[in-house]
Amino acid sequence: MAIETTINGKAVSLTAEPDTPLLWAIREEVGLTGTKFGCGIAACGACTVHVNGEPTRSCSVPVSDVAGKSITTIEGLKGADGTLHAVQKAWIAAQVPQCGYCQSGQIMAAVALIQKTGKPSNAQIDEAMTNICRCGTYPRIRKAIIAATGQAALEGTA
Amino acid sequence: MMADNPTLETEAPAPTPARRKGVKRRAFLIGSAAVVGGGLFAVWWGDNSARKRAVELTAKDKDGSFLGWLKIGEDDTVTIYTPHIDFGQGSNTALAQMAADELDADWSRVTVESAPADPAFANSSLGKGFLADMSGYPGVIAAMPASFISLIARQMNLQITGGSSAVRFTGQSGMRVAGAAARAALIAEAADRLQVPANELTTQDSQVTHAKSARTLRYGELAEAAAKRPLDDNPKLKTREQYRYIGQGIPRLDIPAKVDGSALYGIDFTLPEMRVASIMMAPVRGGKLTSVDPAPAMAIDGVEKVIQLDEAVIVVAKGYWQAKKGLDALTPQFSDGGHGGLSTASIYAAQDKLNAAGPKLTAPTGGKLVTGEYKAPFLHQAMMEPFAITAHHKDGKLEMWGGIQDPLSARMMAAESAGLDADNVTFHPMIMGGGFGRRFPPYSQIIDQVARVAMQVPYPVKLIWSREEEVKHGAYRPQVAARLQGVTGKKRMAAWASDYAQNDDAAAEGTVPYAIPNFEARHHQFISNQVNAYWRSVNASQHGFFNESFVDELAHAEGEDPYTFRRNHLAPGSRHLLVLDTVAQRSGWTTPPPEGRARGIAMVESFGTIVAEVVEASLKEDGTPRVHKAWAVVDCGTTVNPVNAAAQIEGGLIMGLSAAIGEQINIDKGAVVESNFSDYPILQMADAPEVDVHFIESGAKMGGIGEPGLPPAAPALANALFALTGKRVRQLPILAQAKV
Ligand code: FES
Ligand code: FES
Fold first, then answer.
1. B225 by DSSP, 3-state: which?
2. Which domains are assigned to chain B?
3. Which atom of ligand 1 is nearest to A23's Cα?
4. Which of B113, B123, B313, B513 is the most core-located residue (most Cβ within 10 A)?
């Protein structure tokens, strides 16, 4: 039986078996590969998406749990006109990514944090940003979040 | 000359807007027949003068070696092909900066591609030449450190004498020459067309200008004819003062696709009808699959096939989750290859014994003898993207897609595994989610595994390693034990003897830059069942920890400040001294740290780059270390892209801290104990310090940048902890030692 969800604003019915992690449904069934597989046990955050606005490690959520819910992936962050989200812009300005593999998850976690806190403090960043980056881009991630919140506040977005 | 800490906002020159009157905007797609209407420049070392130049620049002598390509489209787009794969270190942008600088290209229209990823080009005769030539001289691996090169040189029977990095070898002698040669050809073509002497022409932003007659020609309109001209393979290169892009913190070309999810990594590749496979290997390296009943896996929805390899069982299914469920349902039996008695402790014990056989130093009257036994564990690279390669066998041809450091060797290996001629195998390199030494073909078992699987199925198949397989079957940094002895007196080191046991001789990394009258380092060979491979900075991380911790011990034995002690053993006016003094200055070494914190200092030279680091640390309530701030001062000669170079140093330093604090691979009963990030902890945001990076532009021979930031981190932290607690860390990781 198909599972009805909304992904990046579009209605999607997933046919994956109910125990399939959301990650694999997104990647293999929907074909959105920006959400990454890193560990499969909710330990790295590479697979972070938003489920009803909450940052969620999609490798550890079965698709049966997201029936009727709204999911946003990295591909859904851009505006309708294709403009980058303020956080994505800040990521480019701070030249954050190295290998880039963790960055979809980092950005999704950062966007959720900013949505929740407005202007996160360093302590809030430390607490919320638990995604692993093997390339060690943490200092630039922090800078980008701080820069993005300045910009976001000015623009009244995020 | 000193450069200030690069700032992100100000470094990049504003890109020239891509508007040109009258330019026909033919939208060339890289990968399509893009050469039409443009020019493809291929620079080769061919004749004797070129060879002379090659020897001059690289101290390597090899006929017909590929150096670089670039392609100029009719619409002025410049595509630079590099033989390197960028796995996050930003070398492709740096290489493009070097070529574009010499070419005087308009940066806003420059893109970079890893050759031969462009099929139009790989299928052409030029592409064939590239492949044939590359198999004789793997430019791809020029990105790797010396020990990689010598290993490949042995395996491929090449006579390569030294190693280098992408930027300092390919960049300095390949990309810059390619750009300059193409520019010379464009000028020659313009001189003919305008009927003026070439020396009256100037170039800028992809245009040739004759100022006297106020006439201008675009590269795009000259390219096709210019590319047919003989290329000068010994063109005049710019001087430092003439650089326009080299030395600038130009934004990396690969970053936009890495913030919107559009960058395609090996694991993201997909084909119609493709199946996904999961794998479980013999837990003890060297063991074999002895039996498996495929039935429980076959009973799972979506599972199509269970394949038995010598050392592994593989489940092929419609999707990854089904393949994983299939694998989990199996109870395969494996042998231990006779290695079942091995453990971390037994390896250290054997190593200690070897080291103990080294001669003992004695202290003369009035002198002090200090001895320290140091240990560094196996380490996992933990590249964020687990191994994943897609392979498709059809009509006697095998095609593969994935991220491997050296696609040409990967192709050779796959051909051998599949029993095909190398001509019938194509390997398409894809973006890599990290590497750190892991994706080096001889250790990338996945190449052989997926090639064998593809030969047994009629559809394309993507083999994905789980993180657990990734951790348990790594190609680790070697576990090393060392015994260091030092004799001191009158605040000076009089003698130093180190005995260390590991797989290979770390002669270069075992030395220190300090003036010590009697210095010796002895290697004792020790081989286990583990593959001893390369981990970011290779042997410099273990030996940097041993040596720089031990210098600290000797300083304290003499009651001397560790910074002063080091500087008193360095030659006045030396690069090392300037690096050390600068880090002391920037970190405020002589002023006391905030309450509850202490600082440690260390300096390690690796890959031709000298890096000194200071870390300021405290202990958390639970007794674990917390690094608040770190300073790195770097002399790599010249930085091509200071913003990216700083990122590499920051990342290296943080990876070094991560490893020092918590990372270890333990062996028990011959098998790896750790399995995932749950028991192989990687440093996270909350524990990552602010990093101050400063470059000294000494102009010395260009050194590497991806690795040298790492080695000083562990000893700097260990030294800070000693200053804080009086306890000397001699075994890594700092947390959870002797877990097994
Ligand atoms: S893949 Fe989901 S947290 Fe690592
Ligand atoms: S950028 Fe490579 S893992 Fe984060």
1. helix
2. 19-260 (3.30.365.10), 266-337+387-464 (3.30.365.10), 486-493+506-514+526-736 (3.30.365.10)
3. 2
4. B313
Q: How many domains does chain A have?
A: 2
CA Rg, chain B, in Å? 27
Judgement on whether residues A61 and A122 belong to the same structural domain of the protein: no
Give the ipTM: 0.95
Nearest by CB: A33 against B90, B268, B386: B268
Residue finishing a domain among A39, A54, A76: A76
Could you list the pLDDT tens digit for every one of the 158 residues in chain A? 799 999 999 999 999 999 999 999 999 999 999 999 999 999 999 999 999 999 999 999 999 999 999 999 999 999 989 999 999 999 999 999 999 999 999 999 999 999 999 999 999 999 999 999 999 999 999 999 999 998 443 333 32
A153 part of a folded domain = no
B300-to-A63, A64, B164, B465, B694 alpha-carbon distances in Å: 18, 19, 50, 20, 57
Q: Which domain holds residue A72?
A: 3-76
Do the Cβ atoms of A94 and B276 come within 8 Å? Answer: no
Ligand 2 centroid from CA B732, angstroms: 24
Same domain, A14 and A38: yes
pTM of the model: 0.87
For residue B587, give both structure tokens.
Answer: 């970190």
Residues of chain B with pLDDT under 70: 1-69, 82-86, 114-174, 233, 736-740
Shortest Cα distance from B237 to chain A (angstroms)? 30
Nearest to B92 by CA among B180, B166, B145, B183: B166
Atom of ligand 1 nearest to the CA of A42: 3
Q: Are B455 and B418 in contact (CB under 8 A)?
A: yes
